Amino acid sequence: MAIKNIIRMGHPTLRKIAEPYPVNQIGSGEFNNLLTDLKDTLAASGGIGLAAPQINQSVTVAVIEISVAESRYDQSTSMPFSVFINPRIEILDRQEQGYWEGCLSVPGLRGKVYRPQHIAVHFLDQNAHTQQIELQGFLATVFQHEFDHLQGKLYLDHIKDTTQLSFEAEFLEFELDRPGLTQ
Length: 183
Ligand code: ZN
Fold this sequence. Notes:
This protein has a single domain (12-67, 81-177), classed as Peptide Deformylase. It is built from three helices and six strands; from the N terminus they run H-E-E-E-E-E-H-E-H. It has helices at residues 29-45, 137-150, 168-175, and strands spanning 49-51, 61-66, 79-103, 106-124, 130-136, 165-167. Strands 1, 2, 3, 4, 5 and 6 form a six-stranded antiparallel sheet that branches. Strand 3 (79-103) and strand 4 (106-124) form a beta hairpin. The N and C termini lie far apart (36 Å). The structure holds zinc ion.
């Protein structure tokens, strides 16, 4: 196990545009260590996605894992452990939908963010194979949240209406009962 410290908002690494991961290093010992660190740190955090900059590695690598149990976020949204190296987003439908997001680097807060809800992601997997997947709804949001981290952005940057920002405890106390907020 290699559980790393997750850096928080204010740490300059979170605001840097991450470097593309050197393709010829995929599969190296260093790469495998990074992957293990991301996987172990994500598992220990209780989160559903983690980007390398969040463990202070400024490279464009992110992981997502949403177990079926965690897919309470939405009806049918789980994702097996997936590694995205040097990803690129293609927006297939600009229509936006809002979800309440949280971030391991901004602990204790939730905010409602509107993002395009149908995207294609072009990336390399952990075997350096070119991959492409289409994501819709909640999964499209989850990926765009991680992609933001690779661009030096945080979900808070998207919130124009700060009434849509809440502490987690108050979110749970007051917001979840309102219909339609986590659509
Ligand atoms: Zn985050």
